[in-house]
Amino acid sequence: MEDKKSLLNEIKELWKSENIENFDIAPELLEYLELKDLQELKERILNSMSNLTDEQKEWLSQFRKYE
């Protein structure tokens, strides 16, 4: 479980770098996710971040919901 929490913290930091700070996974769901699932999620986030140009990021930022 500790590996999952560590990986989840890495994922949160990635989202934070994209100004998405309210990301969280319910603890009940974390029990059912396997380490492999979280690793795949992290890879997808990294891939999506690297595939976007600065221009695309700027365009997408207009749809970001601010509280």
Regarding quaternary structure, what we see is single chain
Terminal-residue CA separation = 32 Å
What summary fits the major beta sheet? none
Share of helix among residues?
Answer: over 70%
Beta-strand proportion: under 5%
Mean pLDDT: 77
Order of helices and strands: HHHH
- Helix/strand/pairing category: mainly alpha
Number of domains: 1
Task: Walk me through the structure.
- With 67 residues, the protein is mainly alpha-helical.
- The chain has one domain.
- The protein is built from four helices and no strands.
- α1 (2-17) packs parallel to α3.
- The radius of gyration is 13 Å and the shape is elongated.
- The model has no long low-confidence stretch (mean pLDDT 77).
Overview in brief:
The chain is mostly helical and 67 residues long. The protein has helices at residues 2-17, 27-32, 35-51, 54-61. It has one domain.
List keywords for this structure.
elongated; 67 residues; mainly alpha; 70% helix
Secondary-structure blueprint:
Blueprint: H1 2-17, H2 27-32, H3 35-51, H4 54-61
